[in-house]
Amino acid sequence: GELDFALSNAAITYFAVRGSEGWDRAYPVQSVMTLASNVALFVSPAGSGIDTLADLKGRRVTVGVPGAGFEYFVRPILAAHGITYDDFSPLEATQQAAVDMLTDGSAAAAFLGGAVPTASITQAAASMDITLIPFGEDEKQALVDEYLFFRPATIPADTYRNQTEPYEGLDVGSMHFIT
Description:
five-stranded mixed beta sheet
């Protein structure tokens, strides 16, 4: 009751209104409006040997800011691809810090995203050649079918430096205004 309105990610709201996935109860909130798509994906330095999500295994990977709710969309993406946090060393970092970690080699991949173009991905692409790691087509469709907040999303070609083809990804939960 402290706020009348707030900003949220549709993935977090999805679980909050159901009282599932770690929420202590169901929270009766409604979306007022969608502000922007949140197109997020794993990025790695080109030539790192990480070309699929399965290649994350055994690596150091940034997965988002602690307490920010990234796990509400990262864990389902990984699970759809047969991967858990136990398969790699998860690192918690801001998007800026994640890009720094990619640049200095202390992380092999990073989960980055937001409205397109995303500043952190633009920064990563400006400082190195990057790979936008694709989601498996069947896995992506399974996520869209199972969760209301996942939707197909295309990052147009030439959005990021050296990205010559469209990237067929996911809106991992639109940013929205809730009450």
